[in-house]
Amino acid sequence: MSFKIYKPQILRDLFTFMKLYMDSDVKLLAGGTDFMLMLENNKIQPDLVIDLTAVQEMKGITVIGDELCIGALTTMTELAESALVRTYAPLLAEAAVSMGNLQVRNLATVGGNLANASRSADVVPALIALDAVAIINKDDGSRQELVEEVLRGSRKTSLAKDEVITFFKLKLAKVGTGMAYEKLGRRKSGAISLMTSNIVIEQTEGKITKARLVFGVMTPSARRARPAEDFLLGKTLTEKIATKAAEIARSYIVEYIQMVRPADLDRKELGYAYKLPVLEGVAKRCIISAYEKGGV
Amino acid sequence: MSEIILDMNINGENISIQVPSNMRLIDILRVKLRLTGVKEGCGEGECGACTIIMNGKAVNSCLVLGIQADNATIITVEGLAKNGEMDILQQKFIEYGAIQCGFCTPGMLMSAKALLMHNPKPSKEEIREAIAGNLCRCTGYTPITKAIEAAVKV
User: Fold this and answer.
1) Is the pLDDT of residue A296 over 80?
2) What is the average per-residue pLDDT within A237-250?
3) Which residues of A are less than 8 Å from B130 in CB distance?
4) Alpha helices of chain A — where are they, by DSSP H?
C-alpha cells in the first residue's frame, strides 16, 4: 500500500496542507512506534502521511511563568532526562522511563501517546494526574482542553480531522507536593502496562489540599478517581485513611466500568479479577509514598 | 507507486536515494543499501536486532518510516570499524565470547555504542539498562555485559 508523503517544517505549512487534504485519509506521523505497526498490519491505509518530526515549534521543554510547557513531539527519553520535568513533574519523568525499551523511548512522543489514545498509554494517566492541558491547533484557531477530556474512549479523542496537538501545559508543582508512580507489567523492560498508578498529593501543614489519583489501563480512557480524591481532601494521612481511599478508588473503577462497558468486568483478558485487589494495594502504597514525599 | 528522495549521512557518507514512500528504514538499509548487518527479528520494536544509531540515539530501524530519516545521520554496525580496524566494542565482544549465533550482535553493539557516545564511563546498571531492549536467546547476557564493561575500561 503506497501513499503520498508530506514533511512540513513549520506549523503554518502543516495546517495549509491539512486543509487542502480535508477529504482524504490523512494520517499524522510523530514517533511512529505504534503507527508503523498499524501500517505493517494494514490496520491503516492512508492516502497521505504527514511526517511531523521536522516541525520545531512542536519541540522543547520550557518554563513560562508558573507553567511547564512541553512540545507534543518531545520523546519519552527527553521527558525522562529533562531536569525541568524531573523537578516540577517527576511523575511524568517516571512514567516516561517505564515505557517500552530505550529504542522505543527514543522515538515515541508525548503527543503521539495522547493522540493514539491507547488504553495502555504510558504517560497519558500521568498527564491527567498533573492536570495537564493539551493545546490543540488548527488552521484558523486554537483551543485548550484538559488531557482527561481529550480522551473519549479507547482509541477515541476529541480531535477533529483538521486539528493537531502542538504542546502541553501544566502547573509547576508547589512546595508540599508529592508524587508517586507504579507500573504493573510482566517484565521490568519492554512490557505493555497492565495497570499504572499515578498519584499527586499536595499538603499544607500536614493536611491534604489537593489529591489526584489516576489508574491507567483500568478503564477504556484513563479517568481521575474523583470520589477517592474528595475523600482525602482536608485529611491528615494515616495508614487507615490511605487504605480507605484505595478502597474507594477500587469501587469507583468498578462503578465506572459498570456504567460504560459492564461486560468488561467478566472478560478474562482484561484481568479485573486480579487487577482490582492489586490496585487497592498499589494505590495505598502510592498514596502514602506521595504524601511522605510532599511532607516538608 | 509513490516514491520519495531521501538525503542521509550513512556511516560517514552523504547519500541521496529514491525509495517507495512506505518503505521502512530497515528495508532501505538492508535491501536498497545492502547493509545487511542490520537484522530483522520481531519487526515490532521488541527484540532490538535492528538497532541502529540515528542522530546519536539508538532506535529500532523497523519502527522508522523512511521519511523520518530524511536528513538524518545514521550509523549501522558496518560503520563501527575504522580504517580496517574493529571498534573496541567489537574486539571485546570477540575476546569475551559475547557472540554465539551472532544474530543479536549488531543490535547489541549499536546499543552499546550509543551508550558510550554520550556516557563514556557508564556503570554496570547503566550498561544493563542500555541493552534492556536487545534480546539474546543463546549467548546469555553475562558475557555481553562483561565485554561492554571491558571496552569501557580501555
Assistant:
1) no
2) 98
3) 102
4) 11-20, 35-40, 76-81, 83-88, 90-97, 102-105, 110-116, 124-129, 147-150, 226-232, 239-260, 272-294
Contacts of B48 in chain A (CB under 8 A): 101, 103
- Residues B61 and B75 sit within 8 Å (Cβ to Cβ): no
Q: Which three cell numbers stand for residue A197?
A: 498508578
Cα A25 off chain centre by: 26
Q: What is the pLDDT of residues A110-128, one digit of tens each?
A: 999 999 999 999 999 999 9
- Between chains, do A189 and B58 touch, taking CB under 8 Å as contact? no
Other CB atoms within a 10 A radius of the CB of residue A215 amount to: 28
pLDDT tens-digit map of B28-70:
999 999 999 999 999 999 999 999 999 999 999 999 999 999 9
**A78 Cβ contact list (under 8 Å, min separation 6):** A61
Residue with cell 482527561: A148
**Strands A26-29 and A207-216, bridge-based pairing:** unpaired
ipTM computed for the complex = 0.96
Of all residues in chain B, the one with the smallest CA distance to A1 is B22
Helix axes B105-118, B88-95, angle to 10 degrees: 130
Tell me the DSSP string of A58-71. G--EEEETTEEEEE
| Neighboring chain A residues of B51 at a CB cutoff of 8 Å | 103
Measured in angstroms, the CA of B106 and the nearest CA of chain A are apart by 14
A195: cell is: 495497570
* pTM of the complete model beyond 0.90: yes
What pLDDT, in 10s, does the model give residues A274-295? 999 999 999 999 999 999 999 8
CA B40 from chain centre, in angstroms, equals 11
Does A213 score more than 90 pLDDT?
A: yes
Q: Which three cell numbers stand for residue B14?
A: 552523504
Q: Does A264 touch chain B (CB under 8 A)?
A: no
- CA triplet A127, A129, A135: central angle to 5 degrees? 35
| Cα A137 to Cα A11, A141, A157, A160, A168, distances in angstroms | 9, 6, 14, 10, 12
- Neighboring chain B residues of A32 at a CB cutoff of 8 Å: 63-65, 68
Residue A36: all three cell numbers together? 508503523
Indicate which of A101, A104, A105, A107 best probes the interface with B, i.e. most B CBs within 10 Å of its own CB. Answer: A101
